[in-house]
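Researcher: We're teaching a course module on how sequence relates to structure. For the next exercise, students receive a sequence and then see the predicted structure as tokens, so they can try to spot secondary structure elements on their own. Here is the exercise chain.
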Amino acid sequence: MAVQEAKRANRLKSGKLVNKLVNEYWEDLINAKKTGKKVIYTTGLPIGPFMAAQDLAWIHGEGYGARVAARHEEKEPQTFAENRGFNRELCSYARTQMGCAMFAEFGVPDDLMPGPIATEIPAPDAIVTCYPGCSTGPQWDWAIERVFGKKIPWFNVVIPYHMGRNGSTYMKGEEFEENVKYVERQFEDLIKFLEVISGKPYNWDKFQELMGVTKKVGQLRMEAMELCKAKPAPASFFDWSIQIAPVNYLTAWPGTIEAMEAVKAEVQERLDNGVSAVPTEKYRIFWEGIMNWNKLGWMADKFASYDATVVAGRYTHMAFWHEPDSIDPEHPLRGIAINHLECQLNLGYPITEERMMTLSKEYSIDGIVFHGARTCRSFSRSHFLLAENLNKKMGIQSTSFEGDMVDDSFYKEELVNTRIEALIESLEAQKSR
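Model: And here is the predicted structure for the students to work with:
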């Protein structure tokens, strides 16, 4: 197949505003202890507002791993973690943060030369785990606790897997309601834990204010993404990957509403003026799997060269305050529980399939790319069944390749090229018929 290499993805310019907020957040975190703030390590779902209300700094393990990888500084901390006994097949987010945390605790070995981002992480004063659908998170934080001599207070929020039993479906049913109440009770206990860590009563007024911001940011993001149901799409999955920070570890950070308003305004302006994410869109793709943080730009241009827009994905469209209307800032715990229970990694197979079919219809999907992250088997556990059933029920063709979130050593570029090209050829043949 002849590929026009000159074609490039047309990325959103407003992403620069998000980058500015991200840089402000990390600068604040790096200097947190100098200003008297305590630092909380978190993994899993976005729970920053719980800490922000108490004037506690927080670092999100996956967000930090993605930041290190986006600046191509991941290899040294991953190597250090592997040399200290953490197997290469373990979650690469975990290995990356573990290596950086060990730099902070033990210093940098003479045979490694990590970049500045990989060595700026402060040591934790407490750890909070809030992981859905994966046992890695609690074990990851347990390992960090051991690095720092088992002296770090640790709180684990359990997000129960939503199987869809007892008539429960997405956001409905007996099992769902029981799980919401269970998570709410844990959040009440988390607030008591943070009162002990901070040494002061919980600031409920501030928390409610921050959850009002979170709801607004979530609404703006979902509205902006839904504008991409248009043909051609004005923005892509790779744009929305870059916009994850304001609804993840940056949740409720000052300026997030303004940043997402600017993103939505740019998408609307593109839509009004006929400007698309891919210069000549012919195919619309769904990305199933975690994004690859050190290859976002490369992947965006790769699909653009085939006139294919990756329009939506499970990671971006089924998580991160994706149900903002369920949040009542005056009584926020239920809304937080709902968003966390119904995130993409925490749904039983029938609910996952139903949600993907709905998104595929809404975004006029032609094909699916299954990105199997080598070190996150929990995300890719249902890929073969999803590929078979979406083809059988909707006629959607797919391809798959293995990669990773932040460890690019698992990529085989020739294989990726071959698989994408084969999918495009099959889609072209289908359109011809």
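Model: If you want an answer key for the exercise: The chain has a mean pLDDT of 93. Residues 138 and 300 are 33 Å apart (CA to CA).
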